[in-house]
Amino acid sequence: MAKINLRVFFLLMVLIAALSGCRNDFEFETAAGNELRFSKDTVYLDTIFTNIGSSTYTLKVYNKSSKDIKIPEIKLNRGEQSGYRLMVDGQPGKSFQNIELLSKDSMFIFVETTVDITTQTADKEFLYTDQLIFANGSQSQSVELVTLIRDAVFLYPQKDENGNKETLLFGEDEIEGFWLDENDAVNGNELHWTADKPYVIYGYAAVPGSKTLQIDAGTEVHFHAGSGLLVADQATLNISGTVENPVIIQGDRLEPAYENVSGQWGMIGLTVGSNANIENATIKNAGNGLWVNKNNGVVNLHNVQIYNCADFGILGVAANIIGTNIVTNNCGMAGFGANYGGNYTFVHSTFANYWFKPNHTAVYLDNGDGTSEFTLQAKFENSIIYSSSNEALTLNYTEPNSQTFDVKFTNTLVKFFDINNVVYGQFPYSFEDTDIFENCLIARNNQMYRPFFADYRNNQMMITEQATDLINFGTTNTTVSVPEDILGKPRTTKDLGAYLHVVQPTEGEE
């Protein structure tokens, strides 16, 4: 028993000695005011909309000295009234005292902001700033905080007295959404969107039957996650952009990291019996850019760009669409898809797809589901159908019948690399049949008839001067019907696709 007690006593003495020897490691000196170093001198928080919280940004603080230091205070210069929020050492707040930082160590400070622009200015944009102060009496160090705030029109479902949000019936499903009102008590005419302020949409905004949503040139529309636009039976969507002032439709995440991220919002849906005229518009980062289901009359598209959609850029379901100067790229399924037949004409259009995963295509056409057959008529003239996958064109028919599966490609580039010749030469991939493929360029490998796009990764889909096979290859009559390219340039040559070819500067040129 005595031996055990002796051992316990000995261990206690060793522990006490060890703790005493380490005591100086936990003695912190007050920071003199210049020991700290920062990962950046200014934290630029990306543009946000008024009253909408930003993403979280990170500042790293370093103690480069050989001393353990204590920072007397970390605070925002605007104090508790600041629109910025901090998290330091795991604690949220706007000021912090006696923060300890070991020698040669570092810590993270997380920064967010939410600002009501109306409390700052009557302007539509405002540069909101503050300073993050690392104080020590009369000495201090600081880091600038900068955010651009934009005013906007917010449209969203209302709540009833029980807190339940408005819903819409979409097929057999209820979805979160609301009807646009031309006499709304807060927003006034919600069926006329102007370039005065951006529009930020939560839930699905719906155009009522017999009504028209007019979207003017230069308007910016931002959809929140899970949101979109629906056009009801007998309703119309008019998007009236110009070459100089196109309409931009995208998600509501404004950070550069989200510039080309697909699936950030739902879709623009033209339901059964609806109609649309869309001119000079860019639609990007949706689930499906434009979904057209058995529309009434003809959906006319002119100078429309659709990028980075998780599924389809344009999906027609037994629809009727005419498109000129259309550009699609980077879509998970296809740039354009026709399901259950329909009637489609595309002239001087570029359907490209450089999606980062396999099994995508640029154009997909079918006339049924294998059990039910519908009539498909599809024409492509002076166009480009190209993808990073081997087969940029997918044709699925119910029966090999040119009456119900009537497709025609004229003076068009089609990439179709059927490695094992499984379907090459068989209907409808009858590339020698001029009733289907008239005067077309069929790229049977990755080197044939390359379009040499300017920068397909960033959706710059102009062909360059290297694409000699595509320059001036179109038919004259078709080019005359669309005399200007998507940028408004006169078509001096009959180049395939939506753009006239461009000459890229060589090294050393601007």
Keywords summarizing the entry:
6-stranded mixed sheet, disordered C terminus, 39 strands, mainly beta, 2 helices, Pectin_lyase_fold/virulence, 26-stranded mixed sheet, Immunoglobulin-like, Right handed beta helix domain-containing protein, signal
Describe the 3D structure.
- Residues 1-23 form the signal peptide.
- InterPro entries: Pectin_lyase_fold/virulence.
- It comes from Avrilella dinanensis.
- By secondary structure, the protein is mostly beta strands.
- The protein has two domains: 36-150, Immunoglobulin-like; 153-481.
- It is 5% helix and 46% strand.
- The chain has two helices and 39 strands.
- The strands form four sheets. It has a 26-stranded mixed beta sheet that branches. Strands 1, 3, 5, 8, 10 and 11 form a six-stranded mixed beta sheet that branches. A five-stranded antiparallel beta sheet has the order 2-4-9-6-7, with no helix packed on it.
- Strand 38 and strand 39 form a beta hairpin.
- The N and C termini lie far apart (90 Å).
- Mean pLDDT is 92; it is low at 14-26 and 506-510.
Helix fraction, binned, reads: under 10%
Total domains: 2
Mean pLDDT: 92
- Stretches where pLDDT falls below 50 for ≥5 residues? 14-26, 506-510
Largest sheet: 26 strands, mixed
Rounded to the nearest angstrom, the radius of gyration is 30 Å
For the secondary structure, the number of strands is: 39
Number of helices: 2
Give a brief outline of the structure.
Keywords: Signal. InterPro entries: Pectin_lyase_fold/virulence. The protein is mainly beta and 510 residues long.
